[in-house]
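User: Show me an example of a complex going from sequences to C-alpha cells.

Assistant: Sure. Here are the input components:
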Amino acid sequence: MHSTKFHVSCRIDYDIRPSATMLFNVRASNGRGQNVLSEKLTISPELRSEVIETGPGGNRFDRVKTGDAKSLTLRYEAEVESVPLLLNPEHLRKVPPAQLDPAQLPFLMPSRYCQSDRLARFAWQKFGNIEDAYDQVLKITDWIQDNVEYVSGTTTSATSAYDTVTECVGVCRDFAHLGIALCRALTIPARYFTGYAWNLQPPDFHACFEAYIGNRWVLFDPTRLASPNALVRIGAGRDAADVSVCTTFGIASCIRQDVQCTALDDKLMALTGDALRQTAISVDHETMP
Amino acid sequence: MHSTKFHVSCRIDYDIRPSATMLFNVRASNGRGQNVLSEKLTISPELRSEVIETGPGGNRFDRVKTGDAKSLTLRYEAEVESVPLLLNPEHLRKVPPAQLDPAQLPFLMPSRYCQSDRLARFAWQKFGNIEDAYDQVLKITDWIQDNVEYVSGTTTSATSAYDTVTECVGVCRDFAHLGIALCRALTIPARYFTGYAWNLQPPDFHACFEAYIGNRWVLFDPTRLASPNALVRIGAGRDAADVSVCTTFGIASCIRQDVQCTALDDKLMALTGDALRQTAISVDHETMP
Amino acid sequence: MHSTKFHVSCRIDYDIRPSATMLFNVRASNGRGQNVLSEKLTISPELRSEVIETGPGGNRFDRVKTGDAKSLTLRYEAEVESVPLLLNPEHLRKVPPAQLDPAQLPFLMPSRYCQSDRLARFAWQKFGNIEDAYDQVLKITDWIQDNVEYVSGTTTSATSAYDTVTECVGVCRDFAHLGIALCRALTIPARYFTGYAWNLQPPDFHACFEAYIGNRWVLFDPTRLASPNALVRIGAGRDAADVSVCTTFGIASCIRQDVQCTALDDKLMALTGDALRQTAISVDHETMP
Amino acid sequence: MHSTKFHVSCRIDYDIRPSATMLFNVRASNGRGQNVLSEKLTISPELRSEVIETGPGGNRFDRVKTGDAKSLTLRYEAEVESVPLLLNPEHLRKVPPAQLDPAQLPFLMPSRYCQSDRLARFAWQKFGNIEDAYDQVLKITDWIQDNVEYVSGTTTSATSAYDTVTECVGVCRDFAHLGIALCRALTIPARYFTGYAWNLQPPDFHACFEAYIGNRWVLFDPTRLASPNALVRIGAGRDAADVSVCTTFGIASCIRQDVQCTALDDKLMALTGDALRQTAISVDHETMP
C-alpha cells in the first residue's frame, strides 16, 4: 500500500448579485483512503461561512452567505496524502443486487444526468455478455473512449448521458455520466467522482466515476486524461448535481478559475492504459461487512 | 394531535423470468408519526427474502430472490396508526438554503424525474413573487390542478416533470414529480411520497409530495384525489426511482394488482380543498434542531 | 423490367367526436412506377369527402368532414401494378450536395422524427468511412437490424430517431426514422415510405425508407420484414408526420384495423437479405435531369 | 397599398475546411409582395456558385463549392421594395382544415423545431377558447412575450419549441418556433420567416413567423423587436432547418457577421404593439383560390 502526497489548490472568482447562498465543493475529502495533512480555505471578502460534511464520499461543502458582496474570490490549498488500494481485478467479482448493502442501492437508480433506465437495452446489448464485472466496466470505458470525442465547450449543464450516448461529444463530466448510466443499467452501482487530477492538461477540476465491484468502489476514468492512482478526491454523489464545484442559490457567475495539482513525490507511477487491465484502483478504503 | 387507524392491503401478481431479484416497497413505514400495529407480508411461492430499511422515510423494502419461480404473488396487509400533525400555515416559514440542515440538501437538487434546473425560470416567473412559502407550494399545486389533466395510461415510466409541464397530462406520479421540480426550483426542498390513500378512486397506490417548510416535511397532493391526513406512508425518496412499488433486477411483469385502504375510525375528517389553506399537515414528526 | 400485380385492401373503424376533419392516407399512389388498375374507397356512413393529391410521392389523401357521425368505417381496396426497377448497385453513386436537385434538398434537413443534426457525429463515426453510397445505406440498415429490437407496443407517436438510437427498440416506423436520420446526417437525402407489404406478418401498414443515390430513390427496409420489390407505395414524406394513415383534426380513435396485401402473380421473387447486396430496387421511376 | 424601399446588406466571414458545399440563404426574395430592384452578391475568393430557387417563399439559395479555400467572405447588398398588405383583422377568419389548400397542409404538421403534437393540450388549454383566429395568434404572441425572456446566447441550434415553452428563454429563432408550434397545435398553418429587419437592435438577421388565416399568410413577430411592415423577406420554411442563413455540408465556422437594413423612405410608419390589433400585415400577396 503506497501513499502519495499531493499539493492541490484552486482559486475561483465570481461576480454575484446580492443575497446569494453559495455551496462550494472544493475541499479534498478527509478519511477512508485520503488524509488532509493541512489545508487553508479563504473567502474574500470575509463572509460568514460554515463547513458541512455530508454525502457518501464524506464531501465537505463550504456554505457562504454573500450578503451585499458583489464579487467573491475563493482560494483553497491543501496538502493531501492519498493511499490508493491496488487490487487484483480477478478478485473483483460482481456483487449481485441480492447481496448489495442498502447503502449502495441509491447508486443503482437513475438520476438527473444518468438515465440508466433508458439505456438498459443498449447497455445489455453492448456489454451484457461480458462475464467479469471489472472487465465489463473496462469495456464501458473503452467504448466511451472510442465513441465519444472530448471537445471543450460542446455541452452545457443540461447535458445528460442520454444525450452524450448519441451526440458522441462532451467533457469529463459527460464521459463520467455516461459511464455511470451504463454501469447502473447493468446493475453495477456507480457514483460520480470529482477531484483534483495530477498532470491534467489543461489543469482543471476533474470528474470520473466509481463502480462498486468486489465490495469496493473502484475508480475509472473514461476520458483517460488522468490516472486513477493520481487523483485527490473532492467528493462523490449520484451525479454532478450532488457535487458541483459551486451550487448557487441566487445568481453568481464564475469569471476566472485556476486549479493546480502537483505530486510531492518524485516517484509517482501513474497507472494508465493497459496497466489498468492488471491492476484495479480504489481510493475508498471503506468496505461493507 | 389526532390519530387514525387504517387497514391497508395489497396483492400483486407477477410473471417472472428465472433468477430475478425484486425489491418491493409496499410496507407501511414505521415510526416518526406512523405506527405499524400489525402486519403480514407473504410471498408465494415461498422464496428467500429479507427486509431492508433505508432512505429518508424509513422505507422498508423486501428484497426477494426469485430463483426458478415463474410467477410470484405478494400479499401484504397491515393495521397502521397515523398521527398527522396539524400545523398553522402561518408558522411555516421558508427555511433559506443558508439554514437548511445537510440532510435536506439532496432534496434541493434535480433528480431523474424532477429536472428543477430546467424549470427554474418557469418556476420563478409563475411563483417567484409569492412571499409566503406555504402559499407558494399551495399555488404550485393549484397550478398543476388547473393545467394538468389526470388521464390514466397517458404516461410511461420514462415521463418526467420536464414532459408533464408541457404535455399537461399524467397520473399521480407525474403530478408529484412536477410539484417537486417546481419546489426545488424555488429552493424549497421537496421529496416524493408514496402511500396508501383512503377513499382513492379507483383504489391504487398513491403518490404525492412533501415540501420542507417551517422545519417540517409538509404533505401536498396536487391531484387532490386524496387528503394529506388520510394517507399511510410507504416511503419517501428523491423521486419515483427511489421508491417504486417494485424495482426488478431481471425481468418481471405485473399482471394484476389490488390495493385497499380503509379507515378503522368512523370519525375521520379528511381535509381537502380550502380547509388546507387554514391547516397544513405533516406526517413526519422528525424535526431538525 | 418486371411488373407484379397486387391486391391491397384495408378496413379501419373509428370512434369519433362530432365535427372532426380526417385526412386519410391509404390509397396506393398512382404513377411513376406504380399503376392503380382499379380501386374503391368507401366511407360509412356516407360523408362529404374529397381526394387531395400532394407531396413528393404523389400521395393521395381523402379528406373527410365527419359532421355528426359518431363512428366511421373506411374501406379501401385496389388492384395495383408495381414495376420496381432493379438496379446495379455499382451505378448508384452518391450525389454530392453540390449536385442535388433543389427538389431533394428538403430531404437532407432534419425533421420532427429524424433529428439528423443531433446524430451527425454518431453517423460519421459509424458509417463515415464507407466509400460507396449504396453500401453505406446497406450498412445503416444492417446496424439498425443488429441493434434495434422490433417489439410492438414499445413506442408511441412521440418517439423519434433520437430516442430509438439509444432505446434500441421500436416498430417499423421507428426503424425507418432512424434510417432516414442517419442517411441525412451523411448528406444522403432520405424520405419516409409507407405502403402495403406482401407477406408481412402480422399484416399491417408498413413503413420503410428511400435514400437518394445514383439519381434514384432507392428503397430500403431496415426491419427486413418486407422485400423492397414486394411493396405497394401509399406515400412518401419527410417523416411519419407527413404521411400518417390518418391525421385527425379533432378527436377520433381507431378501434379496429385490417390490412391485406396479396400478390396476384405466382412467380413473385421477393428480394431479401444478401440478394439486395447485388440488386438495388427503386419504385420511383422519376429521374432528375 | 403602400410600398417602402429598403437597402439591405450583409457580410459574413467563414473559416472553412477544404471541400465543403455551402448553401447560403441571404438574398431577399423576389415577387409576391416584394421586388428586388437591384442586388449584388459576391463570394471571395471567387468560387463556383449557382442560385437555386425553391420553397414556399420563393427562397433563393446560393450554393457554393469551396474547393481548397480556407476562408470565405460573402457580401450581399440589395435595394428592395416591399409592399405589405394592410388587412382588416375582422376579415381574417380561420380556414378550417377541411378547406385548406393542399399547399398549406405541410405547415400544419410538426417539424424538427416545432413539435406541435406534443404541445397540443397546452395550446388548447391556453388558447383554445378564443373564437377569432387573428386574436388567437395575437394572444399566442402576447403569451410568448410575457413568458419567454429574450437573452442572447442562451440557446443552441438544437433548441426547439418543446424546450422553449419550459425553459422560458431564447432568441428570435426560438420565439418563432414556439409561435409556430402553438399555431399548428390549434390547426392554424404556420411557417418560419427569415428576413432583414429595419431598426433591429443590435442589427442581425431576424426570424418571426407567418400564420395562415383568412387565406393569407399573416406576419407576426413574438419578439416585438421588429414591425411586420418593416421587414424584408429572405425566405419561408417549415422551421429554421429549411431556411438557415448558411447550411454547410462539410465544416465551416462563422467568425464575423454584419447585417444592415435601412429604410430609404423617411415616412415609414412601423406598426407595433396595439396598432397591430387594428391592422394585420401580410407580405405574401399570393392567395389561394
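The lines above are the inputs; the final block is the predicted structure for all four components together. The interface with chain A takes residues 21, 23, 52-54, 61, 63, 65, 96-98, 102-103, 105-106, 108-112, 115, 117-118, 157-158, 187, 238, 241-242, 247, 249 of chain B (CB under 8 Å).
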